Amino acid sequence: MKKVNSLFLALGACLALVAAEGEKIPAVYTVPHELDVLVKAGHIQGATCSEQGIYLAHQLGIEKIGWDGKLIKRVEAPAHLGDICCANGKIYGAFVIRERKTKDELPGLVRVWNEELEQVAEKRFPVNLDGCCVIGDTLYVGEDPYGSKPHPGCRIRRLGLDLSEKDVVDVDIGYSIHYGVQTMATDGLELILGNYGARADAGNPKRYNCTRLTTDLKPVQNLSFKCSEGFGLVPKSIAKRDTPVFFTVNAMGGNMQGWRKDPVNNPPRIRLDFYEYKNGVFTDITANRKKK
After folding, report:
1. What is the rounded distance in angstroms from the CA atom of residue 22 to the CA atom of residue 42?
2. Phi and psi dihedrals of 197, rounded to 5?
3. Apex CA 274: angle with CA 184 and CA 183, to 5°?
C-alpha cells in the first residue's frame, strides 16, 4: 500500500509544477496557517526534497509539504534540528541538543527517517552538528565548535550511511562565517555549502555565504547565493530539465519577527524558488513569484 501511495504522491508532484520542458518553474507557496508551528519554532533551518514532496526542518521538527505547497505530515524532533537531506529513500537530520538530560549526554545527534518520516536510526556525537548532505556512500555533516564569533573556514565530519565514523576535515573556505555550516546540498558531483557569512569588517569583505567543494573537500568557488534556510536538488521528474535545478527556501511576511508580531494576519508562510545550476552559476528560473 505504501508503494501505491508513493506512486500517487509522485504523480501529484509532477502535476503540481505545470511548467513544460525548459520553461520557468512556478514558485511553490505553503498554505497560510498550516505552518503556524513556526511562530514558536522561529524559522526554517534546512530543507530537502524527493518526488513525494519537500521536507522543511526547524527547531521543533519537520514539515512535509507536497509540490502543491499543502501540508502532508508533521513530526516532532528535539531542539535544535538544523539541516536535513534526502538520499536512498531516507531523510538524514543533523542536530545540536540544547536541553540535555545530564552533563554527560552528548550534544550532537544524527537521526534518520524514511520518506514517510518514520524514524529508522540515530547516533550521538560529542560535538554540535548542523548542515548535512549525502553524496554516494558518504554522509557529510557540519560541525560547530565555534559558536557565534566570526571564524575562518569550517569543519566537516564524514560518516558512512550506517552512521559509522570516517574522518573529520577542517576546510579553509577563504572567508569568515558564524557558527558551523548551516546548510548543504549537492548536484551529485560536488558539495555545496550554505554558510551564515560574517560581515565585511569581520573577515568576509566580499560577503560570501556559499561555497562549492569537491567530494574530497577541496574548495572550488565562493558565491553569494541565498540558501541559508535550506535548499536542495529537485528531481528531474519535477524539474523537467537535463540541467540540475535547485530549490531555495524563502520566508514571507518578515520571517519570525513578523510572524510573531501578528500571527493571525501574518501567519508563517514559505515560498520555494527555483534555480538552474550550471558551471557554478545559479540562474533564477522562478515564475509567478510574489512577496505575500
Report:
1. 36
2. -65, 140
3. 15
* CA neighbor of 15 nearest in space, from 261, 238, 257: 238
- Torsion over CA: 229, 220, 96, 72 (sign): positive
Tens-digit pLDDT string for the chain (292 aa)? 444 444 444 444 444 554 556 789 999 999 999 999 999 999 999 999 999 999 999 999 999 999 999 999 999 999 999 999 999 999 999 999 988 888 889 999 999 999 999 999 999 999 999 999 999 999 999 999 999 999 999 999 999 999 999 999 999 999 999 999 999 999 999 999 999 999 999 999 999 999 999 999 999 999 999 999 999 999 999 999 999 999 999 999 999 999 999 999 999 999 999 999 999 999 999 999 986 6
φ and ψ at 179, to 5 degrees? 60, -155
DSSP state of 205: T
Which residue in this structure is represented by grid cell 560577503?
Answer: 207
DSSP codes joined into one string, 59-105: TTEEEEE-TTS-EEEEEE--S-EEEEEEETTEEEEEEE-SS-SSTTS
Helix (H, G, I), strand (E, B) or coil at 281: strand
